[in-house]
Fold this protein.
Amino acid sequence: MPKPKEEKAKEQTQEEEVKKIPLSKVIYTEIDDEVSSIYDRVKSKKTKEVFVVVPLRSILFQSIINVKILKRKTDEIDKKLSFITKDKSGIYFANQCKIPVYNTMGEKKKIKDVRDLSKQEEIKFRSGRPQKISKEKISISEITAKSDKAPMSVRVNDFLHQFWKQGKKKKQKKTMLTSSAHRGTMLTLTAGSVLLLFLIAYIALPNATITLKPNSVPIEQAVNITFADFEKNEELLRTRPNRVLPSYIVNPGILEKTTEYNATGNDAGGSNARGLVKITNRTDREFPLVTRTRFQTDEGLIFRSQGFIVVPAAKGENVPGTIELGVVADESDINNVPIGDKGNIAQNTKLFIPGLTSVSREEIFAEAVEGFTGGITSKDKIVTQRDIDGAKEFVKKELVRDIPGMLKTYVDKKNAENNLGLTLLNDSRAINIGDIEIVLDESIVGQKMNSFNVTARVEAIGVSFDREAFLQLLRDHIELRKSPDKELTKIDDEGVTYRVIKNDEENSLIDITATIKGVEQYELSQDKQSGVKLIKKIREHVAGMQITEAKKYIENLPEVESVEIKAWPFWAPTIPSVADNIKILVDGTK
């Protein structure tokens, strides 16, 4: 007879699809694992869903209370708990606590009821007072027989677990007997030995290590040096006079500089803006303004007054003197850029008088009464005579500024070609600049062009010298300058400066003063006499002294910049009284 549809649906809801459980979600437990240890392992799992494999007769399944506690704790940490077990008590308790139960790890089915294990097997759980079971009683021999019929893997696991527990108990018992017999004696001997060692160390082995950092001070030496032309002063140089070095002429020929200059004139299509300004005077006195007085905006636009006026004084603290005045924009702003339509400034634009101080500008100023008009920017530029004159001056300054760099480039080229080590004497008094020639077609005045080129030419002659010989002379003099009880730790070759004090062109001699800097510090090493004396002085003075007082004494010595003291034992407040037990290092070295 076919089953009703309701029964088929019920059977389908009691079984889940066959699937496999990932090992990353599985925890294996032992029979005697407590609830707390199982919870700790569930908590340490990183997965949200955790499957706990529980063996038969586990302590966990001895009471439903254990299962409820584990369920509550896992819910608190937002973990989904499931059991994998065949323990009937565990299945029942899990169903009561609404915990999913599976019968295997591999292809598994979810157990909805303890009867799912076997239709012939039943288990009755009682609560409250004991009740008599109606089923036939089973003898111990029958239980043993059933146990013998259990699968071999289960029986082997049970045997090994019992063997492990018995061995663990024997080991604990043996350890307790051994430790209890000797613990008191061993503790006494150990404590006495440690105390004796500390006593010996404190009495016989106290020592201190003092690390000194020598005091460093900057030093500089100025040296007067004469450069003599190598060709014209050959006889003088042959005698090797003191502080005289040979020099060499640098003559690259004609130097040339070409630059582009922007035209500033406007064609007839351009015009200047104009308008009215209201001048405000907050001072208590009248302020006269001459014709063509300049007014300037924050953007650098220039406007000029068209007549002489007197700005009236203020009539009170809150009633300044005012007057209106017509102004016209200049052709160019303060940056020599045409103003044109930029001069059509808006109403209320503030203008100041550049000739006044910053304080006076706050007292006397102007504002546009209305928007300015009439400013037109020409699209075409016209070269004016002022542009020609400006271009000549500009290219001269550019050439003079670049001459030292041009001479240096020439010297570097000669060094590379001839494997030399010469350096240009970069001082304006050592460079002879001839008359500058300007190359410019002045007929372009009035022509429409945005810019034009202008060229300047000149003959310039410089002087060079051997840099290494120059530096060595300075090093020798700073070595002589240092104190006899100090050593030079640094010489700044790159920071050498010099200036020409005399240029004797007739005899081809140039006198300069050069300055070299360095750093010197006291020599405190034990292979130097000054260091031996100082170390002996420190050792004898601080012996037996309080560490804090010894540190103050050493830091006040002029030879020492800083000091570090380490004592043994570390709690000792004083330096050892025996001088041989005081070790002194300089900069961390012996």
Q: What stands out?
A: Confidence is low (pLDDT under 50) at residues 8-18, 115-157, 175-181. Residues 152-204 form the longest helix (53 residues). The two ends are 105 Å apart (CA to CA).
